[in-house]
Amino acid sequence: MDKGAHFHRCDLQVHTPRDHNWTGGDAVSDDQRLAYASQLVQACRARALQAIAITDHHDMAFVEYIRRAAEEETDERGAPFVKEKRLVVFPGMELTLGVPCQALLIFDADFPADLFSLAMTALTINPSPNGDAKTANTERLQNIHSLKQLKEKLDEHTYLRDRYIILPNVGESGQFSLLRKGLAGKYAEMPCVGGYVDGSLNKLGDGNRKIVAGLAKEWGNKRVAIFQTSDSRREDHRELAKFSTWVKWATPTAEALRQACLAQESRVSQEQPLLPSVGITSVSISNSVFLGPVDLELNFQYNALIGGRGTGKSTLLEYLRWALCDQPPGIADEDTPNYLARRARLIEQTLKPVNATVQINYDVNGVPHVVRRDSRDGGLQIKIADAEMRPCSEDEVRALLPIQGYSQKQLSGVSVRIDELSRFITAPIRSELSRVEQRSTDRAERIRQTYASRSRQRALVRALDQRALEERSLSEQAEAIKSSLAGLSEDDRAIIAKGKTFDAADQAVQSWRDSITTFKSGAESLRAMVTSSLAQSAPAPAEPDAAVLRAARAEQQALLTDAQTALDTLIARASGILEAVGPDSPWRQWAASLAGFKADYNAAVARSSTHAERMTQLRQIEEQLTRHVRATARLREELRGLETAETVYETERRAWLALRRERAELMRAQCASLTASSDGMIRANVKSYADPSEFVNSLRQFLSGSRISGGKIESLGESIVSAADGVIQWSAVLADLEKLAEVDPENEGNAPRPETPSLSAAGLTASEIDRLARSLKPDQWLALSLIPIPSVPIFEYRARENEYIPFGNASAGQQATALLKTLLNQVGPPLVIDQPEEDLDNPVMLEIVEQLWKAKQKRQIVFASHNANLVVNGDAELVAWCDYRTSGDQSRGVVAGEGAIDVPNVREAIERIMEGGKTAFNLRREKYGF
């Protein structure tokens, strides 16, 4: 587990059998007390309590027994719990003060037991003998007239100072609450940052809610965090955890509780806290010329990397982004730096020389993922849950393990680039867009396949039209020759006349054979599929509903087996027909009949010696006609198989276009979400069919050498962008281009050029359209038709109420502030930003701080920062600080330490490293009047 702060469910007022109001048996002997302690620890585990404070009245006798039980607790397998999962036991006491009120005094969880008696002595409490079943009657500490005085008395002793927290009772009513008439001054002067209630916070009335919220002037405008407690004092633990509070800390100390009170929006919750569902759990770098080896575990909420300039904060973030393939724009221009080139140089200079790898552990909804990237070749491997490591692509990493990352000053440069704006919209919905893109890619491949069938169908229609003319010509020639013959016997003339009917009959027979051949081929393919399905059929699972699953699989197996048997029978039957097996086969009988007639026909032709030359010509024409007719029959049979090709192609095309619309709708919805999450500072819309650059560039490449100017080609793209309905214009342009792509250059002069109104309207001349027809090929048109015209997000900035200006016209600080506020309002993948303060205007820093408290409930945040307010008052759960490996030598850095703000050495590091660090902590205290 990381060294940062985490939420723990706490009940900070739990009593023991020593309490006078205890319901249940006594526990006097060590064995009885240990048995009670063990039962209490088990009850806490059953109620998902992670921390308790033992707060008997002016007594601490049971604390050590309960601590021991917590340390000895075992899991279901009998193994002891690791320290991080043990029940936390805070020593404490419930004090009845002369203020007058009651208060909980809670010490560090590791406060030594041998100091318990000294703590009571400091408060002039006369402890009851440990062996007694009950404590002595509680006597009010009349010598302590204020909570301020209580703190002063405790701080007189170095062994107590900074190791306790005082939580006064701030319940709605009763003699022990501080919120009573006449106690406003005591409340206003108290040095306390928190208080407790017996039971639910909802019991507080509106007046008292205003007091604890710091909205009551006469009470000093002092705001305190409230801890719900159960005030549990029953042997059956019926009340335990009934009212609890979730508190965040890294180490269970009184200071951690105080820091939680100082950032109650972030660290105290009466309901189970919301936490991000995805996040980076660790970054591991095997070696680095600059940083050396790094193993840094990250918190699921807000992580802050701090350190002097050049100590490695930015480097660490760039390593992380490189391993997760987070790609900022890679093409530099005059206005923006080339972030990708910078990162490439960093990898080349600091990781590659030592053959380093960067490994990121990433948790997605409780499922661990590991991605490892090798600096030598950029190769990637991924592991999901307990599977083995396997190679993967950058796209797979980006789809499975997304982040939103920005380098220094990148936020304030977003408006300069369309691709940056698009990334701002697409990053939160990357997984959804990836799924749509994958389906689009699959659909595009099916379009390519069906386009081939459609093209073949159209080619066959044209070929058959042409062959029909050729067939008619040959038939007419044969008939003319036959009519011109003279001197033939009536018998020979009758035989020759029959030739036409035999030819027609044979054409029918051949078409039947062709259809059987086609069927046999299809049946064999289907049989192969059935056989494969049978071989690969998964067995029925043993549970659940094993009998039902077995029956379902049996039905599937029976169906496929019957299909296999039926197909075998049909294939064998088709083979028998085609092979004309057996003397009774009508196919063999027809072949014999046709052969007999042909023999008679040839003999009749041979007897016509006076017309030898004409008869030879007739024989040649008839043989040519026979071949032609048989070939035509085969083409018609092929065409019948492609009867639905046009429909299938159009269906696939419509489905692809629907996916493009789905993508646009996702972006449109994200724009609406972004507008809402920016609180109106940004108005985002999607302009459909707004970026035809890829389409135009591809068309220009296909028409290279055609002498059509680039401006004319660009005008086609502009006609799509400027159209009232982009999709209609795009479809019209594609339709015109397809007509020209289908023009056969060899027959160009034999048919009029097709009408292309959209091309003409875009400014192409007739001669340019002719040259386009001679250059563009069908496969090139297909490629063009599958280049989508992307939608582009359009951003506007709210200059004043109901008045928006183009986003690019806002100042860099205004842009960055609006974008960062929006990012912090969004639910999304981990947000990684290097030094966001460099993009921001100082007056908005505290607004950003307040948004951070809510943002880290929705998404993991990783910032590198020099701004102490972002780290301290933003309440980073984990702070990691970088330093120079050797003092004064800025050539190498190191991750020098890590932890949470409630840990003293972390606060010291912040004050030492960060300019304004001490001021930020003071601001944190002053906000609460402490």
TrEMBL record:
Rad50/SbcC-type AAA domain residues: 283-483
Transmembrane segments: none
UniProt xrefs under InterPro entries: P-loop_NTPase, Pol/histidinol_Pase-like, Rad50/SbcC_AAA, TrlF_ATPase
Pfam families, per the entry: AAA_23
Name this protein carries in UniProt: AAA family ATPase
Species in which this protein is naturally found: Bradyrhizobium diversitatis
